[in-house]
């Protein structure tokens, strides 16, 4: 259930994801950018070969990923001070964040987003991705892709920071 095929540039956390196809798309993005995917239970699907194939994850063997049982187990593995919380309720726009290699980008459930108690852990590290008023929020997998490529773009503009960035 866990593998380490590469050292992650970022950590992507899906808190209690509900839709396997979204998780599949996020996994693809993680492989593309060199991020580790963390899934926090309960999940709205089973992580087994059938469900992975169904979600089209023929590249899953290339993904650095891990499933944890709950929020407490997640924070025992990762530096909380490096967490960025993505929510439509955040005061700060994505473009205002200054990402560092190893940062943790946390995303909530497709139907409800991040719970208020998690959003309130560090409101100054809450980020939102702007949308027109006709749209509540972007799809989860799109949000992850936008955030990951914003971080990579920052690092490229900073001269690459000595990182091996994907082309």
TrEMBL record:
The record's EC number reads: 2.1.1.207
Location in or out of the cell: Cytoplasm
InterPro entries listed in its UniProt record:
Alpha/beta_knot_MTases (IPR029028), SpoU_MeTrfase (IPR001537), TrmL (IPR016914), tRNA_m1G_MTases_N (IPR029026)
Claim: Transferase is one of the keywords in the record: yes
Domain tRNA/rRNA methyltransferase SpoU type positions: 10-149
Q: Domain of life here?
A: Bacteria
One example of the protein's molecular function in GO is: tRNA (5-carboxymethylaminomethyluridine(34)-2'-O)-methyltransferase activity
Catalytic reaction(s) noted: 5-carboxymethylaminomethyluridine(34) in tRNA(Leu) + S-adenosyl-L-methionine = 5-carboxymethylaminomethyl-2'-O-methyluridine(34) in tRNA(Leu) + S-adenosyl-L-homocysteine + H(+); cytidine(34) in tRNA + S-adenosyl-L-methionine = 2'-O-methylcytidine(34) in tRNA + S-adenosyl-L-homocysteine + H(+)
Name one cellular component (GO) term: cytoplasm
**Which keywords does this chain's UniProt record carry?**
Cytoplasm, Methyltransferase, S-adenosyl-L-methionine, Transferase, tRNA processing
Indicate yes or no for the key word Kinase.
no
Q: Which residues bind S-adenosyl-L-methionine?
A: 108, 129, 137
An example GO biological process term is: wobble position ribose methylation
What enzyme category does the UniProt record give?
Answer: transferase
**Assigned protein family:** Belongs to the class IV-like SAM-binding methyltransferase superfamily. RNA methyltransferase TrmH family. TrmL subfamily.
UniProt function note: Could methylate the ribose at the nucleotide 34 wobble position in tRNA.
Q: Please identify the protein, giving its name as recorded.
A: Putative tRNA (cytidine(34)-2'-O)-methyltransferase
Its lineage reads: Bacteria, Pseudomonadati, Planctomycetota, Planctomycetia, Pirellulales
């Amino acid at each position: 259930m866990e593998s380490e095929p590469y050292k992650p540039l970022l950590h992507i956390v899906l808190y209690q994801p509900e839709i396997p196809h979204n998780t599949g798309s996020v996994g693809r993005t993680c492989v593309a950018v060199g991020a580790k995917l963390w899934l926090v239970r309960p999940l709205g699907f089973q992580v087994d070969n059938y469900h992975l194939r169904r979600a089209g994850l023929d590249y899953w063997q290339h993904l650095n990923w891990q499933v944890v049982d709950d929020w407490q187990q997640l924070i025992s593995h990762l530096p909380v001070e490096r967490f960025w919380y993505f929510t439509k309720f955040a005061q700060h726009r994505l473009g205002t964040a200054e990402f560092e290699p190893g940062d943790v980008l946390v995303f909530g459930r497709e139907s409800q987003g991040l719970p208020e108690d998690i959003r309130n852990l560090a409101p100054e590290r809450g980020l939102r991705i702007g949308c027109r008023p006709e749209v509540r929020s972007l799809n989860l997998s799109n949000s992850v892709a936008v955030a990951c490529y914003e971080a990579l773009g920052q690092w490229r503009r900073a001269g690459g920071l000595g990182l091996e960035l994907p082309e």
